[in-house]
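Hi R.,

Here are the chain sequences for the assembly we discussed:
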Amino acid sequence: MDDEATRARQELGLLLRRLNVELDAVGQRFADVHGLNRTDVRALVAIMDAARRGEALTAGRLGEAVDLRSASVTALVDRLERVGHVRRVRDPEDRRRVGLEMSESAMAAGAEHFGGLARDLVGAMEDYSDEELAVVHRWLEDMTAVVTRHARGERPPPPTGEGRGLEF
Amino acid sequence: MDDEATRARQELGLLLRRLNVELDAVGQRFADVHGLNRTDVRALVAIMDAARRGEALTAGRLGEAVDLRSASVTALVDRLERVGHVRRVRDPEDRRRVGLEMSESAMAAGAEHFGGLARDLVGAMEDYSDEELAVVHRWLEDMTAVVTRHARGERPPPPTGEGRGLEF
DNA sequence: TCGATTATCTCGATCGTCGAGACATTATCG
DNA sequence: CGATAATGTCTCGACGATCGAGATAATCGA
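And here is the predicted structure of the full complex:
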């Protein structure tokens, strides 16, 4: 691979980094608008994602999702409950557990903010062909695989080519 | 656009979100490994980016880059200087200003961590054709434009089609 | 030269996070 | 069935990152 080809690929990496920064800024903006901090936003997103899958998060599982200790989760849920974004619901089956339910207003605010972004992203993909989207899809999965390994600290990655055979 | 086509585009949005999470995790890992917090990492990245462009950041510009008040920047630079990652260098031209220079060890650590990721990303793009990479490039720029508008709170986006003409 | 401006730092207060441990509930086992 | 362990959450005290207000020092403009 010559220098020019490498440079083009490096530029995609830089573009990806820039996109990452802007995506983080979207979350930051939601936090600013609603008087929350980044952890609170991450927690609300986690609760909303769980709700979308039909399961109600417990305090403990939320702590795993956002990587906080139980003391911090208690403070976190206190904050969110104080402003009316979530409710604590003791589980009748196991009364040690505390389920978390998002309020309708918080649900609506999240859908408005992040749903609006999703809608606009889909809109911006309108003119892409199926083939083009398939390329992007494959690229995103490949990049995610690499990034995930780095995030887990698992260097080095497998030496490319997942069984395309025919080599030597 | 039928439902299936929309669904495929929504899935790309989800993939992008997942990739964003993993990219953040890479930064978090660097922070963990080196005993830093996320702000410190963002600051080091900002200083390194500036250095790559040949300019030395001042304390004030670093504060703009990572969105911190001057009091926090002082504490931030204190932390980084204490562990030997940056040096304060008073500007001889304007002796109010404090330039920031990264130490060689910090430079090397950053290059090792993030440079390694960049290298692996480029490696994972090896088998993509120029045409495929061009599609990805265009897609990344389009998505960045949408996300950036949301991050700035500038809804709604321009109604698609940048002068493809022929419509009415 | 002298006031206005700029760049950074100091100080005190606030808030998010944590470790240790308390408390209540449920599971396990003799 | 009763004692003990395991589990899930919460309370408390401490620490550290951030901030606003204001101090300090250097530069610029008239």
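Chain A is about 65% helix and 5% strand. Residues 37, 39, 68-69, 71-72, 75-76, 79, 94-97 of chain A lie near DNA strand C (CB under 10 Å from a C1').

Let me know if anything looks off.

Best,
T.
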